[in-house]
Specification:
Protein name: Nif-specific regulatory protein
Number of strands: 19
Organism: Bradyrhizobium barranii
Number of helices: 21
Pfam families: AAA_lid_14, GAF, HTH_8, Sigma54_activat
Keywords: Activator, ATP-binding, DNA-binding, Nitrogen fixation, Nucleotide-binding, Transcription, Transcription regulation, Two-component regulatory system
Structural class: alpha/beta
Shape: elongated
Distance between the termini: 41 Å
Helix content: 40-55%
Subunit structure: Interacts with sigma-54.
Strand content: 5-15%
Length: about 575
């Protein structure tokens, strides 16, 4: 870190020396430095490198000992932190270097913060004072300004320095300069977000254009055959043609469709037709594991990372290096783990659980879900940035009711497999095929396979006829489960994939939010019946009511109040509310 002594050792001809002995940049020197910062931010390099370069140039603009730039993610947590140009990262663990109380106040109020002595200010805890080396007789001043993006605070720029005998006017002069730099940083961060999103959408458009240009060529056209995928219907042929095109790129693919449509078979077909075919194909069902187990399975863990971790273990991302990783049921992962997964997909790097060494991999990710992710994003159950990252090439798998001509072929294959496994020679009567063709099969291919195996197991003759099916006797458990006949299933529309540039929010749901805590803590939840019954309760009582209702879990209370976890933490400290531990 640069201190005032080192700054004094390198005087500039365009700077002025104040009586305190510190160098104050002249107006010309300040303009030159701001120009250099603007030029750096317009360059072609990583955002973290740009921020580090800005911090390196700040000592030429203002008197400082240390500077920090912090950008937040959509949930209000630190995503990118750069200080002194020597350390940068995308890990929330970097947050220990921040004076948390001061940062919270800047983000919550959206206003700059000037402190002449951090040891005497309520926004700085004893740990913050110790971190800033402000103990004893050392007076440390602090200046922090918000970084705005579309009228929303998305980060902070802050500096600290040894307090001298200068006036508050000097601090305010530095504040004006830092505000200019923060404005440049906000524009750069906004352009970075637009660039990342635009690059993903361009890739999607390019592949979609290739798919649309893929047209039949008469007799010269060769049918695409995929092992394990059976059928000859137009819907299935169109799907196989798309698989052939998508396999040629390394873009992330999102398989959409109802349960039982064969998403794992399609993922494997894409891998086997790609340049990664000779590399590993690793698969994982995200819904089958808890968050902690899922993190260990995907990223691996170091020896001693937790109880039972007797050896270092590679995760699925490492095992799939240079190959393909299939993540099934990706729509079921928790919000906190979505942020961790987003970082890996963006940077292709991660750290094992319990480790600090970064592991870089080259993995193509194919995700699958039967969930409506657009609605999940609108309800804030699924991160929008992760949605855009995994949905580069969305591929919709048709349900079985849209490819009924494939039912006889599929049923014949399932019956053949049953005969081989059980040493029988059953065949279908024409009446049996009529029964299968009339069924809705809301469980799709998986339900058809179960139906064939169940009927073949109970069949007493050498062939399967109409009367062998449970549905002909009103005993089909699947029909009881779905509670609808084949006609109703046929009328149900297939799920559609919408890729809007901006996701629209659904109508406000009937929830019971807490009334606003303070005019500073906006926006809050939609208007409704407050949790506390009285109409004139205080802000402190509303915060306590939300905390008690959420079991003193700050993240849950923040959702009830319509705040971020950072804002609820600031409200607790401002009202002096002690958090209960259970």
């Amino acid at each position: 870190m640069l201190d005032s002594v080192s700054l004094c050792e390198k005087p500039n001809s365009t700077s002025e020396v104040v009586p305190s002995g510190h160098i104050v940049p002249s107006q010309e020197n300040s303009l030159n430095t701001i120009f250099e910062i603007a030029h750096t931010l317009s360059g072609l390099c990583r955002l973290e490198a740009k921020l580090a370069s800005v911090i390196e140039r700040l000592p030429s603009l203002v008197q400082m000992r240390r500077g920090i730039v912090c950008l937040f993610d959509h949930d209000g947590g630190p995503e990118i932190i750069v200080d002194d140009g020597r350390s940068e990262g995308r890990d929330a663990r970097c947050g220990v270097r921040l004076p948390q109380g001061a940062i919270d106040q800047i983000v919550t109020t959206g206003r700059p913060l000037i402190v002449e002595d951090v040891a005497l200010h309520s926004a700085f805890s004893p740990s913050d004072v110790e971190m800033l080396d402000a103990a004893g007789n050392t007076r440390v001043a602090f200046i922090g300004v918000p970084i705005d993006m579309d009228e929303k605070v998305m980060g902070t720029l802050s500096i600290d320095r040894i307090a001298d005998n200068g006036t508050r006017a000097q601090l305010e002069d530095d504040l004006r300069l830092l505000t200019m730099v923060a404005s440049l940083l906000g524009q750069t961060a906004k352009l970075h977000c637009l660039f990342v999103r635009g690059r993903l959408m361009d890739e999607e458009f390019r592949l979609q254009k290739q798919l649309s240009e893929l047209k039949p060529h008469g007799r010269e056209r060769k049918k695409v055959q995929v092992d394990g995928i059976i059928g000859d219907s137009p819907a299935l042929r169109a799907l196989l043609e798309k698989i052939e095109v998508i396999a040629k790129s390394n873009s992330t693919v999102l398989l959409r469709g109802e349960s039982g449509t064969g998403k794992e078979l399609v993922a494997k077909a894409i891998h086997e037709r790609s340049a990664r075919a000779k590399r590993p194909f690793i698969k994982l069902n995200c819904a089958a594991l808890t968050e902690t187990v899922l993190e260990s399975e995907l990223f691996g863990h170091e020896k001693g990372a937790f109880t039972g971790a007797f050896n270092t273990r590679k995760g699925r991302f490492e095992l799939a290096d240079k190959g393909t990783l299939f993540l099934d049921e990706i729509g079921e992962i928790s919000a906190s783990f979505q942020a961790k997964l987003l970082r890996v997909l963006q940077e292709q790097e991660f750290e094992r659980v319990g480790g600090n060494q970064t592991v870089k991999v080259d993995v193509r990710v194919i995700a699958a879900t039967n969930k409506n992710l657009e609605e999940a994003v609108a309800r804030k159950e699924f991160r929008a940035d992760l949605y855009y990252r995994i949905s580069v090439v969305p591929l919709l798998l048709p349900p079985l009711r849209e490819r009924r001509t494939d039912i006889p072929l599929l049923a014949a294959r399932f019956l053949k497999n049953f005969n081989n496994e059980n040493g029988r020679a059953l065949v279908f009567d024409p009446s049996a095929i009529e029964v299968l063709m009339s069924c809705g099969f809301p469980g799709n291919v998986r339900e058809l396979e179960n139906c064939v195996q169940r009927t073949a197991t109970l069949a007493q003759g050498s062939s399967i006829a109409r009367h062998d099916f449970a549905c002909c006797h009103g005993q089909c458990l699947s029909a009881m489960l779905w509670k609808c006949g084949p006609e109703e299933m046929a009328r149900q529309p297939s799920p559609t994939i919408s890729l809007p540039a901006r996701l629209s929010m659904p109508p406000t749901e009937a929830v019971t939010p807490v009334q606003p805590v303070s005019s500073e803590l906006t926006p809050l939840g939609p208007p409704g019946r407050p949790v506390v019954g009285a109409a004139k309760v205080t802000d402190r009582e509303r915060v306590i009511a939300a905390m008690e209702r959420s079991g003193w879990v700050q993240a849950k209370a923040a959702r009830l109040l319509g705040l971020t976890p950072r804002q609820i933490g600031y409200a607790l400290r401002r009202h002096g509310i002690e958090i209960k531990r259970f």
